[in-house]
Design a protein that fits this description.
Elements (H helix, E strand, L loop, with lengths): L1 H19 L12 E9 L21 E7 L6 E13 L7 E16 L6 E18 L9 E17 L4 E18 L2 E3 L2 E11 L1
Antiparallel strand pairs: 1-2, 1-9, 2-3, 3-4, 4-5, 5-6, 6-7, 7-8, 7-9
């Protein structure tokens, strides 16, 4: 929890510095783009290895996602992203086979240095989250249970333009993700998300 607070304070300081001393906003990353990403989302309530940021929680796969970013205006752009994360519940006493989360977010992306091939940015936004619990099949067919939740995202990343229309990025975000009732093993899926992304710029 202490490290999470430190991360959030650092990100807020970066944002405040940029708002006060904003750089010129034109260049490489003023274009829009389509992206595909792969990464690790580690809900803190399920994480048995918090000191290993690149080790998934037990039973979980790396998440995958797609995104669309609008062309930027004065260094700001909107990003719509959809990611899917799944955890298989292998405990023999569990009544569920797996839990799947689909996370649809709308983020404001602020490119700090858009006129360079290597460009840091900050991002923050809101998300809608849908869960699907798949019951264990014991003969009688059971209907999967779906629930809706909400989230808040804050993060920072680095864009790198490799070719005229191609770029890649690495990003850290903290996702606050909550449900009114327990989904799978917890009702709180908040935690860090580390990702790599390939983007086609247009």
């Amino acid at each position: 929890m202490k490290k999470t607070v430190q991360y959030l304070i650092t990100l807020c300081c970066i944002l405040m510095y940029h708002l006060a001393f904003g750089a010129e906003k034109s260049g490489y990353f003023s274009a829009g783009g389509l992206g595909a990403e792969l990464g690790i989302w580690k809900p803190s309530s399920l994480d048995g290895n918090p000191s290993k940021p690149f080790k998934n929680v037990k039973g979980a796969d790396p998440y995958w996602g797609i995104s669309f970013v609008t062309p930027s205006f004065a260094g700001f752009a909107l990003r719509v992203a959809l990611i899917q994360w799944q955890q298989r519940l292998t405990d023999e006493t569990a009544q569920l086979e797996s839990v799947t989360l689909r996370h649809l977010s709308l983020d404001l992306k602020n490119q700090i240095v858009s006129q360079a091939r290597i460009s840091p940015y900050v991002c923050y936004g809101l998300a809608a989250i849908w869960s699907r619990e798949k019951p264990v099949d014991v003969g009688d067919r059971k209907v999967p249970l779906d629930r809706a939740g909400y989230g808040v995202n804050v993060g920072a990343g680095l864009d790198v333009q490799a070719l005229k229309h191609w770029a890649f990025a690495v990003e850290y975000q903290y996702l606050y993700a909550a449900f009114e009732k327990k989904v799978g093993l917890t009702d709180n899926y908040s935690g860090p998300k580390v990702s790599g992304r390939v983007m086609f710029l247009f």
